[in-house]
Amino acid sequence: GSDCPEDWIDCGNDNCIADIWRCDGDNDCGNFKDEHDCDSLPPKKCLTSQFQCLEDGHCIPETWHCDGEHDCEDGSDEHSCENDTHCHGFKCKDNHCIPSTWKCDGRKDCPDGSDEEFCSKDLCTATEFTCSSGTCLESQKVCDSKKDCPDASDEGRLCSQACNATQPACSHNCRRTPKGPECYCNEGFRLGKDGKTCEDVDECLVEGFCSQQCTNRIGSYECSCMEGYQPVNNSCQAS
Fold first, then answer.
1. SS3 of 75, please?
2. End-to-end C-alpha distance for the chain, whole angstroms
3. Inter-residue contact 93 to 114 (CB < 8 Å)
4. Is 102 helix (H, G, I), strand (E, B) or coil?
5. Residue 184 and which of 29, 41, 230, 239 are 20 to 30 A apart at CA?
6. What is the pTM of this model?
7. According to the model, what pLDDT value does residue 212 have?
8. Which CATH number fits domain 89-119: 1.20.58.1480, 3.30.70.1140, 1.10.565.10, 4.10.400.10?
């Protein structure tokens, strides 16, 4: 029997690919099995679960449409997203769309700051992978040919691209992802908008990290209590 996850295509050459890559015009299997029996699909016609880039007609997963990142070479997957109902990242209150990993990271990326509202500490860490569904996943489970995210967003055709010398130098670390090699940061840092520089996260800007007083440190933070109070189990009580 097939060792591929349910609803995935068994290429017959020890490769498994998600069904969304079937009949997209690319040889994802390596033996063209995913491009066989596609006569029912017109040339460059994407599946209902895909978005078609305007300039080259390339098909990408629909969840990459309006997710705050440019996946089409012409950037058409991020056009007209401010008033679009298809935001697959985090939708700000003013309708701007930003990558979901920027929500509750200690920095206001939405013009109205709504990405830092109602935050708690129960978020994906800098060393974890954020599934499109919002689920947190250990980095080592990404691109391992197993469907670990509920929506299978941890696997994709670009997983085969490894980090190498041709990639922009990452400040901290590099990992394989369904969108190709990606820089990621150590705990207490966030990835800058250049996609490679790691910047300190000011945890003190996120409500709830400390009971009373918070002091930001490079890569961490320190909680303390006001005069007349003493720290007890990560909170402050009257002494």
1. coil
2. 66
3. yes
4. helix
5. 29
6. 0.44
7. 82
8. 4.10.400.10
